[in-house]
């Protein structure tokens, strides 16, 4: 949020020390992210008055103007289409330096001398308007320095507010904080009631629902009719300039005034074209299937928990978020209905984000707007509109719901608790003074108070909230540092758990880079990859981040796509984080790989990464446990993975992860360039390590036997290994897969698996006959259980 220092000074004595003010606001919890000038330095640029305009004799699009500064007149050659006699415009005199580095010199254009330059707003770096000269207010005196004339000797604060401080999203709110922090009085501009000159009013009804516990949504709706304004009237120049400094673009008198009141007082307003309304206004919740055409042209379908404002014909807008197109202010509007309402924050929060709408109004309403502010805002807007566009105002009409908004209860605050939490002695009188400066109502004895927060503070609910208020106003700088004291419980160090840092280091060593993604993601994108039901967020950041992730893959694939769109040919990413299901949250380590198997080099042929490359990375993770023989990869299908290139990872009988190629349909939908491989692995169950046990090295020699078995081509190697290990027993010290062969020498549908068996006993030397008998036993079991035959038979 941007705040003009000059505007702030209308409300409070902010002083002249800008850095000190920025520091004071930051320490009070309103972080100042940036401080900038309202406009550039413009030496030599003054207000000029165009006295005459004649066509250039040799250039159709140029004019020769005589421009006065009040004391002197200059001949200026100008090509702006909007130049006219009597116009006030910025005049850069000879020697002036413009923000782009241009220095104004005496020039000759098509044979006619020019002694300066008339400027657009863009040429002065004031705004982006470049279609013509900057049309200045007619009441500015010719010759006045432009910085002084426009009040550009101003400072703009960029304020980063925490989500709980919606009360500070206005000049009035920030001024309250300055006044409280510096113990200076708040002198708010007087807002006088505007007397009604007509008796016109528009009927309004608030539908609170049938039952006593039904949500109300809107507790107060303040409205006022203003008739006979000048169509296309513009807001005064000073107002447009303040809006510009706040980051808003001026549009028209009515729209600018509603924005101005919102920025000044913190009360969002809406204006309707009265002649486009029918019957009366009803504030209610939407009916199933109702639709709304928004001001931005989009049409959305509403759900019954969305609060709307409607007339007899259609829905006029989403309450507290955005108005509809059908009732908006146009260039021909002459009769206006102002609206300023108080909506329950609980019935506004998240509704706009559901449809991708984050507006200035919604950000304020969902944090809470002062319920006592609406009448003042209507009076302020009416006064500004009558001054800017004329017209006649009707009476201010206040429509209230059948139930009142519950008042904030008094909160018990203990002096002893404040000192205990903050770790500093603060006099009771100072505590009471600080709370009173913040607008709190304080009653009770010095040791214990009953504190009622003001109507604009929706974030004060418990004692600790008030302790925080005391701390930030007392000054965090004034709270001395103290060594931490207390009992510390030393966590046990165990070898049965592979640390996440160790697993991360291993993947980094293998060429991966760590990614960190949100724990929530887009519901539609996740459903395609992982159909498992996801937990929906009640108040999502945006529509694209509306559910908790059930897998880390959606975030990693999005990061991969971002890298590939930036021409990264080889991407390896991993993430350690939690996934969330309806019943549990599970920590996993997941990865994605795409592109070349190895960085480009002369020592090896270029090839794309494949399933077995990524499987080797997963096996390296598994090896950290010291129990690789407990894991197996079983071919199974997953909605996100390519059929035939997906495997489930088991540890014993428990599934602990997945590995495979992303399904081609998903690769195409995500616009990924190369085949993509992913894995996901539970850390708790998968990275539990086996404690090392001493095992004596045998003094007796080992015997090596190799066998080649012919089995069905669909039989996994893991099944062969399992039979061999079980039938060979404890004498088998190592089993190695030497090769897997399929070719013309074998029957169709068969494959040959060559195995190396290392046999050894720790108590004696095995004989060849014993080894041969053991191998024969293995071959027999392979034939019996798997119908395997020896390849040389």
TrEMBL record:
UniProt domain B5: residue ranges: 406-481
Cofactor or coenzyme needed: Mg(2+)
Presence of the UniProt keyword DNA repair in the record: no
Catalyzed chemical reaction(s): tRNA(Phe) + L-phenylalanine + ATP = L-phenylalanyl-tRNA(Phe) + AMP + diphosphate + H(+)
Annotated binding of Mg(2+), by residue: 459, 465, 468-469
Span of domain TRNA-binding: 39-147
Subcellular location: Cytoplasm
Protein name as it appears in the record: Phenylalanine--tRNA ligase beta subunit
Species assigned in the record: Steroidobacter gossypii
Upper classification of the organism: Bacteria, Pseudomonadati, Pseudomonadota, Gammaproteobacteria, Steroidobacterales
């Amino acid at each position: 949020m941007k705040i003009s220092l000059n505007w702030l000074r209308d409300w409070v004595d902010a002083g002249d020390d800008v850095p000190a003010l920025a520091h004071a606001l930051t320490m009070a919890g309103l972080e100042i992210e940036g401080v900038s000038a309202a406009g550039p330095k413009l030496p030599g640029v003054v207000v000029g008055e165009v006295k005459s305009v004649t066509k250039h004799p040799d250039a159709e699009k140029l004019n020769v103007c005589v421009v006065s500064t009040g004391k002197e007149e200059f001949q200026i050659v100008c090509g702006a289409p909007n130049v006219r006699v009597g116009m006030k415009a910025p005049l850069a005199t000879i020697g002036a330096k413009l923000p782009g580095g241009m220095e104004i010199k005496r020039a000759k254009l098509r044979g006619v001398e020019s002694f300066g330059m008339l400027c657009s707003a863009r040429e002065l770096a004031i705004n982006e308007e470049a279609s013509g000269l900057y049309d200045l207010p007619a009441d500015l005196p010719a010759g006045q320095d432009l910085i002084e004339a426009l009040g550009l000797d101003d400072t703009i604060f960029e304020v980063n507010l925490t989500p709980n401080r919606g009360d500070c999203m206005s000049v009035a709110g920030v001024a309250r904080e300055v006044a409280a922090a510096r113990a200076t009085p708040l002198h708010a501009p007087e807002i006088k009631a505007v007397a009604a000159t007509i008796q016109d009013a528009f009927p309004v009804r608030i539908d609170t629902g049938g039952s006593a516990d039904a949500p109300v949504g809107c507790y107060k709706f303040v409205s006022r009719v203003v008739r006979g304004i000048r169509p296309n009237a513009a807001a005064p120049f000073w107002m447009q300039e303040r809006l510009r400094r706040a980051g808003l673009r001026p549009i028209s008198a009515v729209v600018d005034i509603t924005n101005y009141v919102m920025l000044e007082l913190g009360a969002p307003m809406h204006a309707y074209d009265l002649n486009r309304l029918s019957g009366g206004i009803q504030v209610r919740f939407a009916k199933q299937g109702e639709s709304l055409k928004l001001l931005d042209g989009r049409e959305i379908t509403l759900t019954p928990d969305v609060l709307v404002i409607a007339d007899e014909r259609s829905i006029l807008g989403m309450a507290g978020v955005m108005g509809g197109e059908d009732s908006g202010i146009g260039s021909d509007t002459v009769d206006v209905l102002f609206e300023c309402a108080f909506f329950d924050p609980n019935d506004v929060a998240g509704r706009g984000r559901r449809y991708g709408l984050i507006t200035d109004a919604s950000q304020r309403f969902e944090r809470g707007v002062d319920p006592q502010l609406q009448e003042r805002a209507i009076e302020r807007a009416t006064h500004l509109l009558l001054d800017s566009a004329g017209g006649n105002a009707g009476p201010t009409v206040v429509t209230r719901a059948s139930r009142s908004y519950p008042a904030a209860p008094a909160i018990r605050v203990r002096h002893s608790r404040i000192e205990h939490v903050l770790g500093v002695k603060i006099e009771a009188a100072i505590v009471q003074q600080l709370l009173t400066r913040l607008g709190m109502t304080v009653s009770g004895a010095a040791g214990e108070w009953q504190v009622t927060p003001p109507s604009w503070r929706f974030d004060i609910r418990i004692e600790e909230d008030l302790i925080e208020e005391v701390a930030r106003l007392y000054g965090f700088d004034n709270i001395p540092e103290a060594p931490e004291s207390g009992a510390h419980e030393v966590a046990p160090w165990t070898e049965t758990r592979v640390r996440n840092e160790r697993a991360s280091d291993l993947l980094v060593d293998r060429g991966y880079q760590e990614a960190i993604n949100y724990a929530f993601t887009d519901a539609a994108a996740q459903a395609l990859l992982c159909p498992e039901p996801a937990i929906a967020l009640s108040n999502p950041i945006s529509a694209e981040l509306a559910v908790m992730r059930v897998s880390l893959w959606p975030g990693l694939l999005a990061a991969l796509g971002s890298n590939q769109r930036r021409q990264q040919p080889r991407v390896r990413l991993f993430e350690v984080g939690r996934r969330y299901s309806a019943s549990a949250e599970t920590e996993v380590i997941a990865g994605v790989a795409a592109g070349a198997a190895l960085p480009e080099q002369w020592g090896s042929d270029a090839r794309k990464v494949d399933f077995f490359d990524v499987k080797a990375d997963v096996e390296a993770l598994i090896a950290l446990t010291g129990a690789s023989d407990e894991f197996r990869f079983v071919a199974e299908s997953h909605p996100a993975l390519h059929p035939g290139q997906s495997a489930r990872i088991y540890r014993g009988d428990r599934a602990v992860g997945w590995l495979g190629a992303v399904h081609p349909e998903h690769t195409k939908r995500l616009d990924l360039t190369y085949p993509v491989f992913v894995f996901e692995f539970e850390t708790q169950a998968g990275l539990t390590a086996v404690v090392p046990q001493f095992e004596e090295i045998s003094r007796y020699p080992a015997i090596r036997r190799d066998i080649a078995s012919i089995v069905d081509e669909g039989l996994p190697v893991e099944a062969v290994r399992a039979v061999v290990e079980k039938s060979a027993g404890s004498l088998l010290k190592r089993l190695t897969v030497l090769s897997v062969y399929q070719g013309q020498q074998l029957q169709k549908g068969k494959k040959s698996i060559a195995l190396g068996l290392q046999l050894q006993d720790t108590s004696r030397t095995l004989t060849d006959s014993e080894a041969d008998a053991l191998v024969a036993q293995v071959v027999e079991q392979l034939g019996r259980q798997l119908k395997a035959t020896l390849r040389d038979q």
